[in-house]
Design goal:
The protein is mainly alpha-helical and 255 residues long. The protein has 13 helices and no strands. The two termini are 28 Å apart.
Length: 255
C-alpha cells in the first residue's frame, strides 16, 4: 500500500507542477459554469411563479431541474478532459525511456498501475470538488435535497473512475500521447453511448447493453439511490480494466 501511495503522490505532484493541469482545470470550470447558468436561470425564473405552479399542483424540484442536468453535463465535459489527463500515464514514461527505470525500482508493477490510477482519480476528484460551488447557488435559490446531491457526486466520481481506468489502459498501449488520448476517448465514448443502442435493440439484447452502459448506472445515484449493484459494477469495471493494463505492461516488459 505504501508503494501505491508513493507512486500516486509522485504522479499528483507532476500534475500540480504542470501548467497543462491548470489550463485544463480552468477550462473545465468555465464550461461547467457556462452550462450550469442556463439551468439555474430557468429555475430562478420558474421560482418567481411558484404560487401559480402550486395552485396547479406542480412543485418545483431543484434537484431535478438543476442538479441532475448539471451532473450529466459534468460527465460529458470530463469525458473529453480525462483522456488529456491520462494520456501521459505510461506513454510519456515509455517515450522518455524512464519506464524501465521505474520497473527496476523495488515497486511491483501492479502498484505502479494502481498508483497512477489513484493519482488521476485524485486530480479529477479535486476538479469535481472545485466545481461544487454551483451547489451553493442552488441552495440560495431553493431547498434541494442534500442526499441526492452527495450521492450524485459519488456516482459521477465512480463513473469517472471507469473513464480514468480506460485512459490508463489506452496509455499502456502506445508511447504516443495523442494516440493514447484518441483511444481513451473512443473507448469512453463507446461505453457512454452503448446504452443508446439498447433503446432500439430487442428486449434481451437491450437489457444487456443497458447493463454495460456506464451512464445507466449513474441515474440511480442522481436520484439519491446508492444501489450496491451499481457500486459493484463501477468497481468491478475499474478492477477489470486495470488488470488488463497490468497484463499489457507485463507482456511488454520482457520485449
Amino acid at each position: 500500500m505504501k508503494s501505491i501511495l508513493w507512486i500516486a503522490r509522485r504522479e499528483m505532484g507532476s500534475f500540480f507542477y504542470s501548467p497543462i493541469f491548470y489550463v485544463v482545470t480552468a477550462l473545465f470550470l468555465f464550461i461547467n459554469s457556462f452550462m450550469f447558468v442556463p439551468a439555474l436561470m430557468f429555475f430562478s425564473a420558474q421560482s418567481l411563479k411558484a404560487t401559480q405552479f402550486q395552485q396547479m399542483g406542480i412543485s418545483l424540484n431543484p434537484n431535478e431541474m438543476v442538479i441532475e442536468p448539471s451532473l450529466a453535463n459534468m460527465g460529458v465535459i470530463l469525458l473529453f478532459i480525462i483522456p488529456i489527463l491520462t494520456m501521459r500515464s505510461f506513454a510519456e514514461e515509455r517515450k522518455n525511456k524512464t519506464f524501465s527505470l521505474l520497473l527496476s525500482s523495488p515497486v511491483h508493477l501492479r502498484d505502479i498501475v494502481a498508483g497512477k490510477f489513484l493519482a488521476c482519480l485524485g486530480v479529477v476528484a479535486f476538479m469535481i470538488l472545485l466545481s461544487s460551488y454551483t451547489v451553493l447557488f442552488v441552495l440560495a435559490l431553493g431547498q434541494p435535497e442534500i442526499g441526492p446531491i452527495l450521492s450524485g457526486y459519488l456516482g459521477v466520481l465512480l463513473m469517472m473512475g471507469c473513464f480514468i481506468a480506460l485512459g490508463v489502459f489506452a496509455s499502456s498501449l502506445t508511447d504516443n500521447q495523442i494516440i493514447a488520448a484518441a483511444i481513451s476517448f473512443s473507448l469512453s465514448l463507446f461505453m457512454w453511448i452503448i446504452g443508446w443502442a439498447a433503446e432500439s435493440a430487442d428486449s434481451g439484447v437491450g437489457i444487456i447493453l443497458n447493463y454495460f452502459s456506464l451512464v445507466s448506472h449513474l441515474e440511480p445515484f442522481t436520484k439519491g439511490i446508492i444501489d450496491t449493484s451499481d457500486v459493484a459494477y463501477y468497481l468491478s469495471f475499474i478492477v477489470f480494466v486495470l488488470f488488463f493494463t497490468y497484463r499489457v505492461l507485463d507482456s511488454r516488459r520482457w520485449r
